[in-house]
Amino acid sequence: MLSASMIRESFADVFGRACRVFTAPGRVNLIGEHTDYNDGYVLPIALSQKTFVAAAPREDGLIRCWSKQYSRLPEPIEFKIDAASRAGEADWAKHIRGIATCLVRDQFKLQGADLLIDSDVPIGAGLSSSAAIEVAAGFALLKLSDQPIDLVDLALAAQRAEQEFAGTNCGIMDQYMACLGVAGHALLIDCRSLEYRAVPLATEEASVVICNTMVQHELASGEYNVRRSECEEGVRRLSAHLPGIVALRDVELEDYDHFAGSLPPVIQRRCNHVITEIARTVEAVEALERHDLETFGRLMYASHDSLRNDYEVSCPELDLMVEIATGCEGVYGARMTGGGFGGSTVNLVANQSLPAFQATVSERYLERTGIRPELYVCQSGGGVREEH
Ligand code: GLA
After folding, report:
1. Which CATH class is domain 4-200?
2. Given this model, what pLDDT does residue 32 score?
3. CB 3.0–4.6 Å: which of 25, 130, 187, 263 could bond 46 by disulfide?
4. Which of 177, 155, 158 is nearest to 166 (CA)?
5. Where do the structural domains in the chain lie, given as residue ranges?
6. Is the Cβ–Cβ distance between 220 and 312 less than 8 Å?
């Protein structure tokens, strides 16, 4: 487990001075997948795993940053804060360049800074390690420069950083959670109004377990952008029958049933997923609020089937992980989580079955793939903050 004092020591080693420490969490989404950029609902939890940014101000307008996970050289990467933009660049510092550029563009007066980044959010696991970097670094830069912070605005700036600098035309879920996560709760986020409702987790009965397949297929980002434009095409075509809709969120299931047949098959499958997933998310929250974990779990399985068959963003390793979980005792539900094409599944498991679940999943997944998975029993954490 990383701690603020460990990061302070690393910062002193690299930059030779004292610092302030800021953190932002990774997230796991319980249900509501690929709905955020369709103005729908999502239901993520902020994780206790987080990204740390240790930071100290500079007077010369330079950002110098170094990462425990990514830097291959001992020297920090260096750039001018008001000329940080080199979009599409491959180095890891694109996340820092991105958020700095977007905040400067939003008229914030930012000072230069030395930044050291360390994280225990698993990378490539679909748990939003990059949103956590963008948000923690953005928060650090604003705090060092004594600028006012509105957390929703910070989330929006971090989303633009991801879109422009990392090339994924993502929705708002990951950056929003990194900013506004509430410990002990899942957040039902309305991705249209950007408001949320905090829903307590039923931790006495069951735990959320993340199973990392340890694979990440290359096509993830490209296919993500294709899905997003397929949804937009769905809206364009459906609006011929349903004037006034601006996103798939606006399409009621009953109306959709009338017009689905008019869509080309691929677009129809994409719309099937999004429209039913938004309805499932609303139903799942109601189930969670009345502690009906059986219904919640059934909706998780249905979500996975829809992501696999209609949205086509799963992969053999994710399907296998869900299949293994389905056969284990005490499992209410399991599904892929995040963008897909690798990464993790999320599972709702009765507390008394946890040890057997962990042992069985690890053993069977290794047996079938030759890959040793990582499992995390999820501890929920809060959003971005300064660590004292
Ligand atoms: C990625 C994106 C999110 C969201 C999920 C899928 O994590 O960054 O905005 O679209 O995929 O639900």
Report:
1. alpha beta
2. 98
3. 25
4. 158
5. 4-200
6. no
